[in-house]
């Protein structure tokens, strides 16, 4: 297999294009929406809806389409990761529809994101008070009643949950069990359109970082959706069901929804790289201004402590980016990338927390002051080590894949 570390011309153009969007549209309002946590950043939302849509490369497009998505994400998060998450797009909910939905569902739920209407959002609600890393422990139920599924339960920490649940055209993909006794096999994903009776926005989190992103608690009380809103099959396979039976039906239930993580983890890793690069760029610009440009070629015996720190930050960042691009390139080629997606996510989560903390440290009082955005990037960084599988969970997945252990044997 030929290995190329060089992005295509189209990807380089996308990088330059989204970098200027990040610099001109996001950076100027970054501090304001960090301070005014729950305000809708209307200037960004409207700008993106009018000008930004359609510029995004297609995931299933030619050459390095998915790598381009990561490059675009890195650039926008270099601008502001919280505002990036508040962008009107289908988000994780859209990824779930793409991964586990049929063509009618893709058309019904996703076409609105290409239309001429008002801005819309999609979201994914998995996490519950008793079910975070252990998503198989989901308590929210879905019961069949005639032509409907009836959902009951509470979801917490739902990114984009305000827009997706409240603004017409949006939707929340809700994970619920249709048979608790079946464990994972009973968990299915349901698309709940915004405004559906029985879905209530209970509140929004006050957060450490990515404060421009709306993180919602949603309650479902006798919330009815038509059977056509179930993603995948309603067939339940109990623990121990043989592989043939699983393959014949229902394979797109829990597993289908989990497959969305193979696509979304490289994107979260790219978010992390964007935030880390913002911090490193700020350090390098400051050092340049102060006449202390690091000498990358100085022999180790002559390197200053500062130079060693900067070189280490740069190496961490580039390692995270290359792992991210590898996971994305494999996705593009239609190759299984579960191991690589988790590796990229775990590495990038560690790298960004380290780089941003170092940046605050190296910049001294300026780094800690709100005059610069570095303290904000340090706060924005940590989430990359939590959502879409924590650092520990992604390391667990990497270990399982390398050792070829099933989840029951290594948990
Ligand atoms: C800002 C934000 C946005 C989010 N957005 C979404 C969203 O859009 N949709 C959604 O469904 N969820 C979302 N989440 C939830 C997020 O995915 C969970 O917080 C995450 O999966 C961890 O779950 P938990 O918080 O319940 O922690 P826990 O699972 O309780 O974990 C606590 C600690 O224990 C560790 N741990 C747990 N199990 C193991 C194990 N087996 N081995 C080793 N260590 C372990 C974890 O790594 C962690 O450090 C979001 C969270 C935040 C903070």
Describe this entry's structure for a reader:
The protein has helices at residues 9-35, 42-52, 65-79, 81-85, 91-100, 103-110, 161-166, 243-248, 254-289, 305-332, 338-362, 365-368, 374-381, 391-403; strands at residues 122-125, 141-145, 148-159, 171-177, 187-193, 199-204, 215-226, 230-231. It is an alpha+beta fold. It has 3 domains: 9-91 and 99-110, Orthogonal Bundle (Butyryl-Coa Dehydrogenase, subunit A, domain 1); 117-252, Butyryl-CoA Dehydrogenase, subunit A, domain 2, CATH 2.40.110; 257-403, Butyryl-CoA Dehydrogenase, subunit A, domain 3. The strands form 2 sheets. It has a 4-stranded mixed beta sheet with strand order 1-4-5-8. A 4-stranded antiparallel beta sheet has the order 2-3-7-6. A hairpin with a 2-residue loop joins strand 2 (141-145) and strand 3 (148-159). The longest helix has 36 residues, at 254-289. The radius of gyration is 22 Å and the shape is globular. The model is unreliable at 57-62 and 245-251 (pLDDT under 50). It binds flavin-adenine dinucleotide. Flavin-adenine dinucleotide (FAD) is lined by residues 92, 123-127, 132-133, 157-159, 207, 215, 383, 386-387, 390, 392-393, 396, 411.
């Amino acid at each position: 297999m030929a290995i190329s570390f060089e992005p295509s011309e189209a990807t380089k153009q996308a990088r330059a294009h989204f970098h200027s969007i990040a610099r001109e549209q996001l950076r100027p309002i970054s501090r304001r929406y960090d301070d005014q946590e729950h305000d809708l950043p209307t200037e960004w939302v409207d700008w993106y809806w009018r000008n930004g849509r359609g510029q995004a490369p297609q995931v299933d497009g030619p050459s390095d389409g998915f790598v381009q998505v990561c490059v675009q994400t890195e650039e926008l998060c270099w601008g502001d990761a919280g505002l990036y998450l508040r962008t009107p797009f289908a988000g994780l909910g859209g990824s779930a529809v793409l991964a586990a939905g049929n063509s009618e569902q893709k058309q019904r739920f996703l076409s609105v994101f290409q239309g001429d209407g008002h801005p819309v959002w999609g979201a994914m609600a998995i996490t519950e008070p008793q079910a975070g890393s252990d998503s198989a422990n989901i308590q929210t139920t879905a019961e069949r009643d005639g032509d409907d599924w009836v959902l009951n339960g509470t979801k917490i920490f739902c990114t984009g949950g305000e827009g997706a649940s409240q603004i017409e055209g949006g939707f929340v993909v809700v994970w619920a069990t249709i048979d608790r006794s079946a464990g994972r096999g009973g968990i299915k994903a349901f698309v709940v359109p915004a405004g559906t009776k029985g879905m209530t926005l209970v509140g929004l989190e006050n957060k450490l970082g990515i404060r421009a992103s709306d993180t919602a608690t949603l309650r479902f009380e006798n919330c009815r959706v038509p059977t056509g809103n179930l993603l995948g099959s309603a067939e339940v396979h109990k623990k121990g069901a043989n592989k043939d039976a699983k393959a014949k039906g229902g394979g797109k239930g829990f597993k289908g929804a989990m497959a969305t993580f193979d696509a979304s983890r490289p994107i979260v890793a790219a978010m992390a790289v964007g935030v880390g690069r913002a911090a490193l760029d700020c350090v390098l610009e400051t050092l340049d201004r102060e006449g202390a440009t690091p000498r990358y070629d100085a022999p180790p015996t002559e390197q200053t402590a500062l130079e060693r720190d900067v070189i280490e930050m740069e190496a961490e960042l580039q390692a995270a980016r290359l792992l991210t691009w590898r996971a994305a390139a494999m996705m593009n080629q239609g190759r299984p990338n579960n191991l690589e997606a988790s590796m990229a996510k775990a590495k990038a989560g560690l790298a960004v927390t380290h780089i941003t903390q170092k940046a605050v440290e190296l910049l001294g009082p300026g780094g800690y002051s709100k005059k610069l955005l570095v303290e904000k990037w340090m706060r924005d960084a940590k989430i990359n080590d939590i959502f879409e599988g924590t650092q520990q969970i992604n390391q667990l997945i990497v270990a399982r894949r390398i050792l070829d252990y099933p989840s029951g044997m290594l948990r």
